[in-house]
Amino acid sequence: MSELLKEKIVIIEDLNKKRRPMPELNAIYFITPRRMSLNLVIDDFVEKDQYKSIHLYLTDRLPDDLFSFLAASRASKKISALREIDVAFMPFESRVFLLDEPRFYKRIIEDSYRHRKLERLAEQLNTIAIALGGDFDMFYQSQISNCVDLASLTRKKLNQNGRLSSTIGDMIIVDRSYDPFAPLLHELTYQAMTYDVLRADGDIVKIDNRDLLLDETEDKTWASLRHLHMADVMKKLANEYEDLMAKQKGLNKTDGTTKSVAELMRRLPHFQRQIQELERHISISEELDKNYDTWIDDLCDVEQDLACDSIEKPIKAIIPWILNKTLSDEMKMRLILLLCHNKKGLEEEKLVQLLKNSGIKEDQWKVVKNMRYFNATVVENDLPVIMKMPKRKQNEEDLKFTDSRYVSRITDLIHYNHANELDDRIFTKIPSVKPKISSIKSGTQKRKTIVFILGGVAPSEMRAAFELSNNTFKPSASWFSSKNNCTFTSDVYIGSSHIAMPHTQLKMFSDI
User: Fold this and answer.
1) Looking at CB atoms within 10 Å, which of 54, 105, 266, 344 has the fewest?
2) What is the 3-state secondary structure (H, E, C) of 382-429?
3) φ, ψ for residue 95 (rounded to 5)?
4) Which segments of the protein form a coiled coil according to its record (predicted)?
5) What pLDDT was estimated at residue 202?
6) Cβ neighbours of residue 125 closer than 8 Å, sequence gap 6 or more
7) pLDDT at 441
8) Nearest 5°: phi and psi at 206?
9) Rounded to an integer, what distance in angstroms lies between the CA atom of residue 149 and that of residue 369?
10) Hey, what long-range contacts does 309-315 have (CB within 8 A, 24 or more apart)?
11) Phi, psi at 499, each rounded to 5°
């Protein structure tokens, strides 16, 4: 807000709400180039002028028909500036982008919306390429028609984009069904637990009726701790708070001179901000601990066994949990879906029997059964099994936490792509027509990798983008083929329509 005030922007208002006319002020409109948004601008100038003039900024390209629509209105006479800025996405974190459309997947499986929504999505991916400064070779999951059509539409838009003169990396388009496990597991890292347990709304979490902003640029503690396991987070918070209090105690001692008092006054606000930041995270971690039941440890072990396929009798393993009357319907549905993914579908009779025994209300069974619309096999032989790259196993001795054994398939996929080992039976390539820049060819500049997941991005996959880019992900050597070593030298950016948390995914399945 302070940055806006510096630019003399004194009022920010929602276009959808009734606003007081201010004909003495110039107005900046920041909208998506859609008829509904343009109508709101035009309505401000139908009879009287809402503002002195219009400075119109659009997230991306204004189609010709809408340009004509705008030009024919009275509002066009008040336009002082019109600019397309090509940011039709939300930069959620430095390596994570969202298209702010949780209902997107539902709409692309409805024929009446499908092409229009995929076309819009291709436009948005085009603006991401512009933001990153180049064109991309395209890889897509060829078994999934939505991935095929989206890749084709995106390739067309990238080819037509004259602002992209060189190829700087790869864009991979993959369906959520490529790894159905990741959004359903209890992930015990700080960020994932905050989103799952405290139901964070984007980057805002509510504690004791207070809205706390979790922003990687403003909150260094959040940026450094969010991808760590909660056991490590608790230790680090306690140690950092203790160290900071000791430093502040030492700082408060002065020799009484003007110089030392001035130094104290200069440094105290900084310490106060740091203390407040740590206290905020201690409050969040305490809230997580309060909501963390001891049985989650045991439940996590079962979930990890299902995801890692390391259990001989998976149905037998989940029965005690399914029959547990204290376990919520959401938890039971997560377990049943994990079982379906593990078994690549259950016999319909067995699935119905499990649902009956679970005590889940019958009108909620559709949440489990509707998973089939998301290309995941719930009932045996109901859908063709989606082909996937081989899962690379992490050595047991490399694992610090047994409740976090599962490594997402998206992490594997990024590694396979980096090593040029993608299976062409699963992924098809549409190369860019633009030349590769020499600095990437020579290895003096990192190539960029964009991963777009149709159907939501899980926190574990967001974490992978950071860990791989920063070389803090340490796989065992067995992950790699003999002809490729473990060195990873790409900048990874990952995104989707929304963050795929268990409750958001179950809601998405229920809405079909």
Assistant:
1) 266
2) CCCCCCCCCCCCCCHHHCCCHHHCCCCHHHHHHHHHHCCCCCCCCEEE
3) -125, 10
4) 234-281
5) 83
6) 150, 154, 157, 171, 450, 452
7) 67
8) -105, 125
9) 26
10) 309/342, 309/391, 310/405, 314/339, 314/342, 314/343, 315/339, 315/343, 315/350, 315/354
11) -80, 130
User: Residue 400: how many CB atoms within 10 A of its CB?
Assistant: 8
- Edge-to-edge strand list for the sheet holding 167-175: 90-93, 96-98, 490-496, 447-454, 167-175, 135-141, 427-430
Q: Is the pLDDT of residue 258 over 50?
A: no
Tell whether pTM > 0.85.
yes
Q: Which residue has the higher pLDDT, 441 or 232?
A: 232
pLDDT digits (tens, 9 = 90+) for 380-389: 888 777 889 8
Domains detected in the chain: 2-85 (3.40.50.2060), 91-181+391-510 (3.40.50.1910), 190-291 (3.90.830.10), 295-374 (1.25.40.60)
Per-residue pLDDT for 100 more than 90?
Answer: no
- 3-state SS, residue 351: helix
The C-alpha R_g of the chain, in whole angstroms, comes to 26
Q: Which of 177-181, 373-377, 383-387, 439-443 has the weakest average pLDDT?
A: 439-443
**Spatial separation of the C-alpha atoms in residues 267 and 366, rounded to whole Å:** 58
The reported pLDDT for the residue numbered 75 is 96
Give burial (CB, 10 Å; 0-12/13-18/19+) of 465.
Answer: buried
Give the confidence band of 482 by pLDDT, cuts at 50, 70, 90. Answer: very low
Residue 61: Cβ-neighbour burial (10 angstroms; 0-12, 13-18, 19+): middle
Backbone angles phi, psi at 175, to 5 degrees: -90, 155
Residue 93 pairs in a beta bridge with: 96
